[in-house]
Amino acid sequence: MKPGHVRAAMTLPLFSVAAFILVLLYLPARRFRWRLAGWLQMVFHRLALWALGIRLHVRGRPAADRPLLLAANHASWIDISAYSAVMPLSFVAKREVGTWPLIGFFARLQHSVFVDRARRGATADQADSIGRRLADGDTIVLFPEGTTSDGNQVLPFRSSLFGAARTALDEAGVEAVFVQPVAIAYTHMLGLPLGRSGRSIVSWVGDQDLVPHAKDLLAASDFDVSIVFGEPIRFDRGTDRKKVSLEAEKAVRRLLAAELRG
To answer: Rounded CA gap, 152 and 18, in Å?
Structure first.
């Protein structure tokens, strides 16, 4: 049995018990919008990272201004726990995620916004849904690449859902919404730097099945991941969403490249 499997055999049963208790506490906390819900969410995901043998490092800090939309790169299903371990937030996810066993349950539990990227005519309505959530005070993570990368690069951003910021301006009655670039970088395994090919162990791209990928990841174990926050971009009524999308893309690309260089 590989060292990663030994670790998983020890940690996953403990995590399962803790997760069950946390979910029982989280459900009423979210229903009544208690601040406890955000804390429970972070504890859950920090425990998940611990169970998977992943160490989290945070560079920079989340913006204090609200409404806040995080524009982030996306490489793996592990990203969800890494981002969520830093602060209370929700995600924009493709519609299919909501139907997946277990993962769909937790995505709904975290109040994710599900969008159908194949329905071009629905983009405006989907952006409005995200915007209303921003106006209500939720921090939303948007993956503008629209898919996962190999963890070595940032794919071109799609600008359509950045229109959520304009809806948030109207709904919240504020002068500006803030779009903050955020990068996730998988940097080390067993204390040694991960190369381009090494990141393929963590990245979940294309049509890979989740279960085999999770087994390979658990066998390897002992990863380091960094979440790097950039400078927030102000989005007001005169802002062009396409320019903000491009600016955020360039910022995330710079943050990722700098973190991978170490």
So the answer is: 33
DSSP label at 200? G
Phi and psi at 97, nearest 5°, equal -60, -35
In whole angstroms, how large is the CA radius of gyration of the chain?
18
CB 68 within 8 Å of CB 178: yes
Sole residue written with tokens 């990722």:
256
For residue 2, the SS3 value is coil
The pTM score is 0.93
* Closest alpha carbon to 51 in 217, 183, 212: 217
Query: Structure tokens of 34?
Result: 């208690």
Beta strands in 120-191 (DSSP E): 140-142, 177-189
Contact 222, 12 (CB under 8 A): no
- 55, β-bridge pairs: 224
Structure letter (DSSP) for residue 156: P
- Backbone angles phi and psi of 68, in degrees to 5: -130, 125
Over residues 10-60, the pLDDT tens digits come to: 888 999 999 999 999 999 999 998 999 999 999 999 999 999 899 999 999
DSSP H or E run through 202: none
Polymer length of the chain? 262
